[in-house]
TrEMBL record:
<dbReference type="InterPro" id="IPR008929">
    <property type="entry name" value="Chondroitin_lyas"/>
</dbReference>
<protein>
    <submittedName>
        <fullName>Heparinase</fullName>
    </submittedName>
</protein>
<feature type="domain" description="Heparinase II/III-like C-terminal">
    <location>
        <begin position="407"/>
        <end position="544"/>
    </location>
</feature>
<dbReference type="InterPro" id="IPR012480">
    <property type="entry name" value="Hepar_II_III_C"/>
</dbReference>
<dbReference type="GO" id="GO:0016829">
    <property type="term" value="F:lyase activity"/>
</dbReference>
<dbReference type="GO" id="GO:0030313">
    <property type="term" value="C:cell envelope"/>
</dbReference>
<dbReference type="Pfam" id="PF07940">
    <property type="entry name" value="Hepar_II_III_C"/>
</dbReference>
Amino acid sequence: MFEHCTLKKIKDGYSNRNTSKLFPTIEERKKWDSLSDEVKRAVLSNAKRYEDYELHVLTLSMYMDYFKTGGRQTYESPNFERREALSALTVAECIENKGEYLPKIADILWAICEESTWSAPSHNYVLPDNADVHVGCLPDPDKQIFDLFASETGALLAWVLYLLRKKLDEISPLLARRVEKELQTRIIRPYLECDTYLWMLYVLYDGVLINNWTPWCTSNALMTLLLTENDEEKCVKGIEKALFSLEKFVATYPEDGGCDEGPGYWNKAAGSLFDCLYLLWMVSGGVLNLFENNPKLKKMAGYIADVHIYEDHFVSYADGDEKCGFMPQKVYQFGKMTDNPSMISLAVELYRSMPTPVPLQWNMFNYLQGVFLCDELAAEPERPKSLEDVYLKDLNIVCFREENGFFFSAKGGHNGESHNHTDVGNFVVYYKNTPIVVDMGVGNYTSRHWGAERYKVMTQRTAYHNLPMVNGYEQAPGEEFAAREMRYFTEGDSSYVTMDIVGAYPAKAGIHSWQRTCGLIRGKMVQVEEKGEFAVSSEIEYHFITPQQPVLCAEGVILGSAVLCYDINNFVCEWEELELDIRLQGVWQNGLYRITLKCKEKYKTLYEKFVFLPI
């Protein structure tokens, strides 16, 4: 994808380097003062949340708690809050230019410099010489842990120096020097001198998945380097290294551009790839334009529009959230740079559904995009949403839509995907922007999500997706457990997908075949047809996850504005309200229910049909 970007072109781009082509520093008052009152109010409102913010020590016990309990929030929550406060106060100071926020900004900068590590406890293995090996419950003082959050912290501090350097020097020139020393020690030197961090992709091991870590860490390393390092040789080397890693990352993507990590990670996968390319484009004055003639990049960008449902709701396969807090302005600019009208349409809808025009983020690059693209995006007219079918052939995902009616999506794929759930054949149904049956997404991460107990976690299991169980067996994890012969087709105004999901289940389940065929019959219904053959007469039960309070009726179960119809003579229907953690509660504020339909008889050959009808 980037093979045309030769060393000469990189050097030409660097020779045209001008960081003033990025975002304005606090001294460039014209650009800050010309922002609309709406944008200024949003930025100041974000900062107001931290008016009374007090720094608290990030203790050894807090760090070690992860290794005792498996919970990540004890250390991560106050750690992230510190960085979010710094981001909010820095941009507010650029708006106000009164010095009001500077003392607290300086305190936070100093406190972050004093931290023993910038990494998360759960990543206490991202070391240069023994990658992917846990070394204990404390960071090694002689080795730099270079993880997602260390890199994000480095980029944040680099942006604060870029925006406020002269103001900070008025407090003390030693403050900026201290920050620069930490950036060199923790980010720049490890990035330039070491090739063995797994996410760099110079050294690969069997079983290691290439995922969002590569563009996420690379984008932050690149920002830190280009914002604070003046040595041309180092910067050129850093750009070369970034493009090497990104080339490898993009090569793992299918031609349809689909993100197997799900929409929730798109922002840090294809989205961080965009951050890298957009940064290079900006800082080089357009000389390094890696967006041109890049159809695969356009598809990787457009994936997020493909799996959009409405407003800020997305199909939440894998470890995703059904509600994704993307910065609309970033989606907008990515759409512009890849000439993708569907992304611009999505950005407009996202922007108009947000409670604030500029959501706070501690990724400063994205936050500044939000600030300086806000007025342009606000002026964009609303565009009609495409109702064309989406078939991501390589990723095995379909999305069917109709105007003011049903939305349907289903996935095939395999059970060895990045951030995998055992969910081959899963589907979701919405009616008039109301969720009927859903993929619940993922809850708060714990140590259980990354080890032998991953598929004992509720959100990862087949039994908590819209899928059958046979003889008590759920699907099995691993790439070899996959859908077979997935096919998309249309008949008149109706759209269908069919697949055999037998390959996703272990052999001991005793399934010979299981053909699941789903269709959107526009203007009428969504239907799911099941045909199964088994080695012996088998016990079958189906599960459906819904945020609607189930109500039994003569046809089946009422789920809000739709009814799930089935042959009530064949099933015993039960349901339970699920226990949700804080992350899931934030998405499904009215709770979630799991409906279980147990077949009254055992079957050696099965045929069932489920139909979703509007009420």
